[in-house]
Amino acid sequence: EVAVDGPGLEPGSVDAILVVDTWHHLPDRVAYAAKLRDALREGGVLLVVDFTLETEQGPPVSARIAPEALVEELRAAGMQATLVEETLPDQYVVRATR
Fold first, then answer.
1. Chain segment 80-95, per-residue pLDDT in tens
2. Does domain 14-97 fall into CATH 2.60.40.10?
């Protein structure tokens, strides 16, 4: 179990982090992203998968985050982030690097 205020990872301790269908639950996403950035080793990768605004799956539309907003949150946390072209029917993928 991981707290919503931090992932509990030591700085520079991981090469990759995968976050699936939970980003929209985080109360301070930029601060959380900064902690994930710090946990990544140099060149490490963060992948965030979350629900599209259009899908019938997932949380209420009001709780969802547009992929462009997620990219901006990760950039605000000091990461390089881009939307990944993918084929998931109900989700999008954002890739960020330290």
1. 999 998 779 999 999 9
2. no
Q: Domain limits of the chain?
A: 14-97
DSSP state of 51: E
Q: Which two structure tokens, joined as six digits, stand for 48?
A: 């965030």
**What value does the CA radius of gyration of the chain take, rounded to a whole number of Å?**
13
93: which 2 tokens? Answer: 């993928």
Q: Which of 77, 79, 82 is nearest to 94 (CA)?
A: 82
Would you say 74 and 81 are in contact if contact means Cβ atoms under 8 Å apart? yes
pLDDT in tens, 17-38: 999 999 999 999 999 999 999 9
Q: What is the pTM of this model?
A: 0.92
Instruction: Evaluate whether 71 touches 46 at the Cβ level (below 8 Å).
Output: no
In angstroms, rounded to a whole number, what is the distance separating the alpha carbons of residues 88 and 50? 10
- How many other CB atoms are found less than 10 A from the CB of residue 93? 19
